[in-house]
Amino acid sequence: MDEMVYLFLVGLLWGVTNPLIKKGSAGVSKFEGSNVFVRFFMDIKVFATNWKCMIPFLLNQSGSVLYYFTLKSANLTFAVPITNSVAFLATAVTGWCLGESAPRPRTILGSSLIVLGTACYILDKT
């Protein structure tokens, strides 16, 4: 049962932070230049000093670490659908809350079917 809570938490961390990373990196400028290494290190410097991007990124990566440790004891066929469906739904809801376009009726229907399917899967496996 603990694994299920951790998998939901991972899905939430991944899903909520994806739109935040997208929004935080929207203003990052692209560096022009011929040297690939200079551009790479300038991008890293800007990314590392932009807290709007770095904090969601670190939370996202902490979700990955939690997922890694949870997979030691969780059933893989159980872990992947739960985590991915929660991440998808959290991404959609968070993006909508941050001002992205409102979900269309088909998107809401699809999300509802994902929730229903995941709930049926959880009930069947527990």
UniProtKB/TrEMBL annotation:
One of its GO terms (cellular component) is membrane. Pfam families: TMEM234 (PF10639). Residues 1-19 form the signal peptide. SUPFAM superfamilies: Multidrug resistance efflux transporter EmrE. Its main location: membrane. It is a multi-pass membrane protein. Keywords: Membrane, Signal, Transmembrane, Transmembrane helix. It is found in: Membrane. Belongs to the TMEM234 family. This is EamA domain-containing protein.
